[in-house]
């Protein structure tokens, strides 16, 4: 019997995560006939977590959202999603593909906003327990390219409007952490869709083979 997995896709905005999640779902379905797949995004994917998502993305001109509040809101949304959807799905043998997970908090609130890593790791220890991904796919895009893609799509939200320096720190933190993670794959997401897709296909097929799937 094929054991279901928890796959996470990470990267800066405009890296192509949303597209990659759907693409990976199709690989699992078309090549392995895996139909039970839950696609989720963070923050979001439950009624309450989607409300938190709206709050985080909104620009407030009359009050400043502190970095600690932002971190705790991200975690609140994450815990809500894990407890109500991800864990129950994994228990039932359903595959889960998540657009972002806790590495986003390390990269954005840790690297980007400068919150001490010890605090973020404490939250991880307290609330995530064994809910760690079997595989993290990091789509590496340089901030200028990623933001340009997002700008072409719509106006920027509260986080997307931060400085280029902020996103450079986020990327640096991503790369530092992902290189230490044995269960990860790095994709060069600066290239065009076809090349990115081919790289994802090649690397995920190798990984699936190693999992005896
Ligand atoms: N956040 C956080 O700070 N801490 C946390 O713990 C968590 C999240 C969990 C979520 O907003 C925000 O929350 C995010 C981080 C923060 N904020 N920022 N900034 P979101 O979900 O709206 O943002 P996102 O996760 O970055 O999604 P995105 O902007 O939609 O990016 P994406 O999913 O990686 O890309 P996409 O939707 O697949 O593609 C974006 C556009 O680029 C689209 O028009 C594509 O056609 C184009 N694209 C993608 N790849 C390519 C290539 N290879 N070539 C050409 N064009 C491309």
TrEMBL record:
Its EC number is 2.7.4.9. Pfam families: Thymidylate_kin. It comes from the Bacteria. GO terms for cellular component: cytosol. The keyword ATP-binding applies. Residues 9-200 form the Thymidylate kinase-like domain. One of its GO terms (biological process) is dUDP biosynthetic process. ATP binds at residues 11-18. GO terms for molecular function: ATP binding; dTMP kinase activity. It catalyses: dTMP + ATP = dTDP + ADP. Keywords: ATP-binding, Kinase, Nucleotide biosynthesis, Nucleotide-binding, Transferase. The keyword Kinase applies. InterPro entries: P-loop_NTPase, Thymidylate_kin-like_dom, Thymidylate_kin_CS, Thymidylate_kinase. It is an enzyme of class 2 (transferase). PROSITE patterns: THYMIDYLATE_KINASE (PS01331). Phosphorylation of dTMP to form dTDP in both de novo and salvage pathways of dTTP synthesis. NCBIfam families: DTMP_kinase (TIGR00041). Belongs to the thymidylate kinase family. This is Thymidylate kinase. It comes from Buchnera aphidicola subsp. Uroleucon sonchi. The gene is tmk.
